[in-house]
Amino acid sequence: MVEIASGILGYPRIGRRRELKWALERYWSGQSSEQDLQLAARQIRQEAWQAQARSGASWVAVGDFSLYDHVLDLALQLGAIPERFGGASASRDLATYFLMARGKAPASKRELPPLEMTKWFDTNYHYLVPELGPDVRFAYQRGSLVEQVLEAKAAGFSPRPVVVGPVSFLLLAKDAARRTGPLERLAELLPAYSALLADLAVAGAQSVQLDEPCLSTDLPEGAAEVFRKAYRALATSALPLELASYFGPLHENLELALELPVHSLHLDALAAPEEARAAARRLGSAQALSLGLIDGRNVWRADLETRLGLAEELLAQLGSERLMVASSCSLLHVPVDVQSERTLDAEIAPWLSFANQKLSELSVLAKGLRSGRAAVAEALAASRAVVAARRASRRGHEPAVRERLAQLPPSAFSRSADAAERRPRQRIALGLPPLPTTTIGSFPQTRELRELRARTKAGEVSGADYETELRRIIDETLAEQEQLGLDVLVHGEPERNDMVEYFAEQLEGMLATSEGWVQSYGSRCVKPPLLFGDVSRPAPMTVRWATYAQSRSHRPVKGMLTGPVTILKWSFVRDDEPLEHSCRTLALALRDEVCDLERAGIAIIQVDEPAFREALPLRKRDQARYLDWSVQSFRLSTAAARPETQIHTHMCYSEFAELVEAIRALDADVISLEAARSAMDVAVAFARSGYDTELGLGIWDIHSPRVPPAAEMFELLERALSVLDVDRVWVNPDCGLKTRSWDEVRPALANLVQAARAARGRIRESG
C-alpha cells in the first residue's frame, strides 16, 4: 500500500446548527461573556477537527476558523491596525477586533466607521479590507492562529495552519491615503510574516498552508517580482510552505507558481486538469503537487471515477510522496452536512454532497490511490449510479421553457423607449422631490416575525392568521416610513425568509434546503437554494403583497424582485448546463412577474442584482462573454415594462468602477449602490465615466450596528453632489435592513431623511 496525503483547505466555521451565529449575537447583545463566546468557538473547532480526523485526513486545517473574518484575523496579528482603532498601540483584543469589523464593540461606547467590506473574489463571502495607510506599522503579535494550533495539538490532532499569503494579503488591501500601492509595503510586511511562521514552528506546526488565490487572477504590473521576493524571503522559514491557489486556472501565472521555492503547490484540478498535468511534468524534484479534486464551492456529488483517473495518472508520474489529494478550495462555501436536512426531495437528495460528504469523497480518492480501485469498488459504483441518475432525470429539462427561449425576438431585450424619453415620463408619473429618499427593500426581521414564520411552518399558526399578521406588519412598516418622511416606500418583505430562497420556493427547477447554511459575513448566514433544472414560474410570486402595500399608501411603493444573475449566483447551480442557459430561464420567469406587477398598478419595480459584480469572472479574457449574457438576462427580465414604469436595481459591496459600461447597458432607470464604507468613491468613479442615469447612493452602512449622525450622512451626500447633477441622485441606505433592529433603523433613517432635506435646502439657497 502506498501512502497518499489527503486533506481539505478549510472547513465551514459556522457550526452544524449555526452555533457561531448565536454565540456571536448573544455576546454582542451583552447576554453572554467573552468566555462563553470562546467556549462556543472551541466546541465548533473541535467538531470540525473531529470530522476531518474521522475521514482519515492526513491533517486538520487550523486557522480557517474565525470569529468574524480570516483576513481581519491576520491583519490584527500582523499589526495592520489603522490609527482610528488605536494603531500600533492598540490592544489586539476582541474589543479592537469587533470595532474594526462592525464599528462597535460590546461593553463600549466607542463607535467608529469600520473597515470596508467587499466580496472574497467571485464568492458571496465578504471579507474585511485591510487598510494600509502610512500610519500602519506592521509588527507580529501572537494571536488566534497559534492559539488554535496549540489547541489542536493538545487535542491530539495534526494541525496544518492556514494563512492568507503575503502577496494576496497586500493585493486585497487598500492604501487609505492613496500615497502608495499596497505591494510597495512588502519589505515592511515580511518581517511580521516571518515572525508568524517562526511562532507557528515553535507551536509545533509541521508545515503551513499559504493561500495565494490572487494567482488565479490577472496580476498587476510588478506583482510577479513581488511574489518572487516574498517567497525567497519566506523559504528560509523552518516550516515547509504549502502554496495554495484556487478559484480557477492559473494560466500564465502557472510559470510563476512553479518557480517559487515552496514545498508543494496546490491547484484546482477541477477547473484546469491540464494545468495539473503540466505542473506534474515540471515540478522540482523535491516538490509535491496537491490536486484539488473535490469541489469546495458546489454541492453535487463528485464523479469519483473520473477524478480518481486523473489522480492515478499523476501518481504514476510523481510517486506517492509527491502527490496529495485535497478539496479544490476551502469548504467554507458549502453547508456542513446533508444529514442535517429535515426534508429533501427524494430524487435529488442522493445527488448532494455537503462538507462532511466531501470529506468522505476525498477519503475514497485517497484510499483508491493507496490501496487500488478494488478497495473502493462499492463507493465508485455508488458514484456511477448518482452520475447516471442525474443525467437520466427528466426534471432537468423543461421543453416549454426551452421552446420559449428559442423563439424570443430581438425586441424582447429592449425597452420600447430609451432612457432619455422614459425619464420625463416617469418624473411626471411619480412627482418626486429632488434627492428622493427610499430604502433598498427589507425592514427588520424581528425575533417575533421569525418565530411567527416558524410556527406557521410547524402548523401551530393557521395560514389565515399568518397572513393577517403579515398585513399588520406591512401596515406598521409603511406607517413608520411615512412618519420618517421617506418619499418612496417598500412593504418591508416580512413574508420573505431570504431574497433568493423566497423565490426558489415558488419556482419550478429550484429547491430550498432546511439546513444548508453558509456564512456570508460575520454572523450573517444564507441558505443558497438548489438550481437543478430549467426554471419556470407557475404563478405570481410577489404581486399580492405589493398590491396590498400600495393600496395602503398614497406614496409610491416599490415592487421588489431579486434579479436573474443574483438568483443564479446565490444558488448552488446545476453543473450540467452553461450558466447562461440557467440565467435566461430565470429571466423569463422574472419577466412574467414584472409584467404582472405592472398590470397591478406598481409604478416602480426594483430588480436587485447585488451579485452582478461578484459573478464577474476573475480573468479579463472571460469577462466579455459573461457581461454579454448577464446584461441580456437582466434586460430580458425588465424590458417588457412600459416607459412610465421605473425600473430600479441595487448592487452592493463590490468594486464597480470597472463595470460602468456594463451597468449602463442594463438600461435600468435607477441603480442604488453601496457608497458609505468607501466614502462615496463609487460616485466619483461613475461621474468620471460620464454615467448619466440616476444613482441611489448609500449614505448609511447598514452592515455596522452604529447609527451614523446626520452630519456624517450629509457630508457623504455633499461629496456625491460635488461630482453628480442633483437631478440624478437618490438617497438611500447601502443595503436592505433585514439584519438591523428597529432601534437602529428609526434613528438612522431619520438622520438619512434629515441629511437629504439639508442638501435640498443647500441647493435652494445656492439658486
Task: Describe the 3D structure.
With about 775 residues, the chain is an alpha/beta fold. The model has no long low-confidence stretch (mean pLDDT about 95). Helix 25 (about 710-720) crosses helix 26. Helix content is about 40%, strand content about 10%. The strands form 5 sheets. The chain has an 8-stranded parallel β-sheet. It has a 6-stranded parallel β-sheet with strand order 15-17-18-19-20-21. The protein has 26 helices and 21 strands.
Oligomer: single chain
- Overall morphology: globular
Structural class: alpha/beta
**Estimated share of beta-strand residues:** 5-15%
Question: How many E-type strands?
Answer: 21
Number of helices: 26
Question: Quick check: average pLDDT?
Answer: 95
Strand order of the largest sheet: 1-10-9-8-7-6-5-2
What is the CA-based Rg, rounded? 26 Å
Largest sheet: 8 strands, parallel
Measure the end-to-end span.
Answer: 85 Å
Low-confidence stretches: none
- Helix coverage percent of residues? 40-55%
Structural features:
single chain, about 775 residues, alpha/beta, 8-stranded parallel beta sheet, 6-stranded parallel beta sheet, about 10% strand
Brief synopsis:
Helix content is 42%, strand content 12%. The chain contains 26 helices and 21 strands. Helix 7 runs parallel beside helix 8.
Fold topology:
Blueprint: E1 5-7, H1 19-28, H2 34-54, E2 60-62, H3 70-78, H4 94-102, E3 117-119, E4 126-128, H5 144-154, E5 159-164, H6 166-172, H7 186-203, E6 208-211, H8 223-234, E7 241-244, H9 253-259, E8 264-267, H10 273-282, E9 288-294, H11 304-318, E10 323-327, H12 355-371, H13 377-392, H14 399-406, H15 419-430, H16 447-457, H17 463-484, H18 501-504, E11 508-511, E12 518-521, E13 524-526, E14 530-536, H19 543-551, E15 559-562, H20 564-569, E16 572-573, H21 579-599, E17 604-608, H22 620-638, E18 646-651, H23 660-665, E19 670-673, H24 681-689, E20 694-698, H25 710-721, E21 729-732, H26 742-765
Helix pairs in contact: 1-2, 5-7, 7-8, 10-11, 11-12, 21-22, 25-26
